[in-house]
Amino acid sequence: MAAFSYICDSVAVITMSNPPVNALSSALIRAVQKAVEEAIGDFAVEAIVIRGDKGKFSAGADIREFNRLERGPPLVSLIDLIEDSKKPVVAAIEGVALGGGLELALGCHYRIAHAQAYVGLPEVLLGLVPAAGGALRLPRLIGISATLSMITTGKYVQAREALKLGIVDKVVGENTVDEAIQLAKKVIGQPLGSRQLSTLPVQCPPNVEAFLDEAMVKVKKQFRGAQSPLACVEVLRAAVQLPYLEGKKKERELFQFLYTTDQTRAQQYAFFAEREVAKWTLPSGASWKTASPQPIRTAAVIGLGTMGRSIVTSLAKAKIPVIALEQDKKQLDIGSKAVMSLLDREILKMEQLGHTEFTNSLGPVQFTLDYGKLRDVDIVIEAVFENMALKKEIFRHLSGICKPEAFLCTNTSGLDIDEMASVTNRPQMVIGTHFFSPAHIMKLLEVVHGHYTSSTTISTAMRLAKMLGKVGVLVGNCPSFVGNRLMRLYVEQAVFLVEEGSKPEEIDRALEDFGLAMGPFRMMDLAGLDIGWKARTEIGLTGPKLPIGTPARQRGSKRYSPLPDILCEKGRFGQKSGQGWYKYEKSGGRNAMPDPWLYNFLSEYQRIHNLKTHYVTQEEIIERCLYVLINEGFKVLEDGIASGPEDIDVIYNNGYGWPKYTGGPMYYASIVGLPVVLTKLEKYYGANPDIPDLKPSSFLKKLVSKGNPPLKEWRSHLGFQSSML
Ligand code: 3HC
Ligand code: NAI
């Protein structure tokens, strides 16, 4: 680790080096400080350029040092030193300038960025606020409104947008450091006052107080329950109301407060968990280190329905040429129009951000009905109806057509990967790539490993996730895999609570107040109640295949709620039909309104089935819905379907709108305390013995008996022999 410098024509070039992302560790800060002091004191130096080693400026403060007790030198004083320098300092930004990295660049007098570079203040995503003057200098450069949007969302801004906003002075296609040296030479001797951001006034809209009040209301609504976005608005208020130095004090105070909260610990855990899941290992010893992914130069998608069209868009956004195939001309026309409209929207978004070259940077999409066109693609992703017979027919067909090296993937939400693989001539190259809707937006890819799947196939699918900008999580093959397996029980519990006397809107509110992006009833209405109904009909839980004489509210020895089936029989499919658990202004409407019809219907249902209702508290809603999900999480670990609690958390944080500031369901359980979760499950199971999913899992019991070990030790209590991975 070093900050080394060389002098080029009177310009000192200081290189920050701390692989892999030049995080500003204590040692690096110290080294840069020393190099800057030397350059300032050196008569031969007239200007300074700061750059990052290996094409990355800096990813900000070293997050790994956050938990250390001893503090290193403050980044703030280094940045002040740079800004106060009488010799011009130019930041040469390649790769990323994030968090403290961007704050350091904002302390420089000029900033040049490579066209592919990103800048941002993502501290909020770690439950923090920018702590080295970023939220004080940025509004002095680009104004309150643009700063607000950047610091409350933590979004990464590409160089061209940064130029448009005024964050960087110039964007170059190559030789960023040389350009920075040229600029530094050009400005030698010029006054720097207007380039010292901390000395400038904040750029405010006319009624800035009202603007900030409104921002606070919006942010509260948008990031329900999260503390750090609110603190970001507070820092901005300080930037507006206080002189720079006092603003700095306020920034420090807020940072120090957030630094001690559970939310920041949970978000840091979530950050590292996302990186951890990429490092998969199989009991056979194969792992991300030893397996080599094969190149994916071209892809095909079969079926252009809800999922297929957004998978095509996701591939095109990653510049992978795609062949999109449908079953007949009519579906192809509908599907191709849908894809083109999604791509147009993407282009528009990018153009608005100043990326004029984006149109050409989308991968080409070719639409076809001809399977023959799939002969040479590297990977095929099947996204047809959720029907095993149809999927097997397609896999058999692909097997005969595709080149032997082509990987065959299925987007099934939960069917058996091995059964599909068994009809192909390459079962080792068959894998589940379970995208989430809409696939071009959602960050999660569940990569489902079948019995025959080779490590090369796994590593190729994991690489695909990365290419698409997604987090790939490797899971084993079982009905509904990990995400949907847990989700089904959570939703079922919510429906039981309605039978027991609660209302859909009460349950949704309780879970949304907990932080979930959407409660279960609004989610079912959005996804379409008919999807689950079809699946239950197909497996004989309802409909013509259900044996005559089956009790309405029982399947085997388990409680069953026919409520969702009855709603579907009445044509209430959710948003698409204008009615479901809620009513909507019209078919396809989005405003969920409580429906008096449903209340009458539920009373009648409770009367017919002789149900005793009770007052369901918010506590019971949260505990029953979330603990049943968590309990299944422990079973998934026990079954070896996920290799660790981090995998489940990453799936829930990125695919199911779980609030990241609680870390994910398993991390949340560890914070609540496993003995508490166990006791509550025992209580609810005792009261509802016909819901076996509430019965505490043996792995949960084992962990409690081992003294409630911290989450990072849970894996060591799992037997390897049970692993399906
Ligand atoms: N500190 C320490 N380690 C970091 C880091 C950071 N700021 N950023 C990334 N890393 C590590 C990752 O943990 C990973 O380690 P591993 O190889 O041991 O798993 C390695 O760097 C590579 O990271 P990725 O796998 O994420 O690599 P990518 O190339 O996909 O992404 C990135 C690179 C865009 C920089 C991404 O890592 C990222 O977004 N990092 C977070 C940046 C961030 O949040 N910065 C703010 C820090 S807080 C701060 O600066 C406070 C300030 O206001 C004082
Ligand atoms: P959909 O019903 O919207 O689309 C399926 C498409 O497949 C239709 O356009 C149909 O014409 C086409 N198709 C059917 N047979 C075909 C054939 N022989 N050749 C080519 N195309 C054919 O279905 P949806 O929702 O897109 O689901 C697709 C798959 O993705 C299913 O396996 C589903 O379980 C899974 N999935 C769905 C999610 C969702 O939110 N809808 C989420 C994640 C996975």
TrEMBL record:
The entry assigns this protein to a family as follows: In the C-terminal section; belongs to the 3-hydroxyacyl-CoA dehydrogenase family. Belongs to the enoyl-CoA hydratase/isomerase family.
Q: Which reaction does it catalyse?
A: (3Z)-hexenoyl-CoA = (2E)-hexenoyl-CoA; a 4-saturated-(3S)-3-hydroxyacyl-CoA = a (3E)-enoyl-CoA + H2O; (3S)-hydroxydecanoyl-CoA + NAD(+) = 3-oxodecanoyl-CoA + NADH + H(+); (2E)-hexadecenedioyl-CoA + H2O = (3S)-hydroxyhexadecanedioyl-CoA
Q: Please state every residue range assigned to the domain named 3-hydroxyacyl-CoA dehydrogenase C-terminal.
A: 481-584, 621-711
* The species this protein was found in: Microcaecilia unicolor
Specify the 3-hydroxyacyl-CoA dehydrogenase NAD binding domain's residue ranges: 299-477
Gene Ontology cellular-component terms for this entry are: peroxisome
Keyword annotations of the record: Acetylation, Fatty acid metabolism, Isomerase, Lipid metabolism, Lyase, Multifunctional enzyme, NAD, Oxidoreductase, Peroxisome
Q: CDD domains recorded for this chain?
A: crotonase-like
Q: What is this protein called?
A: Peroxisomal bifunctional enzyme
For whether the record's keyword set contains Endoplasmic reticulum, the answer is: no
Matches recorded under PROSITE patterns? ENOYL_COA_HYDRATASE (PS00166)
Q: Which gene encodes it?
A: EHHADH
* First-listed, main subcellular location of the protein, grouped into a coarse class: other
Enzyme Commission number, as recorded? 1.1.1.35, 4.2.1.17, 5.3.3.8
- Which GO-annotated molecular functions does the record name? (3S)-3-hydroxyacyl-CoA dehydrogenase (NAD+) activity; delta(3)-delta(2)-enoyl-CoA isomerase activity; enoyl-CoA hydratase activity; NAD+ binding
The pathway it acts in is: Lipid metabolism; fatty acid beta-oxidation
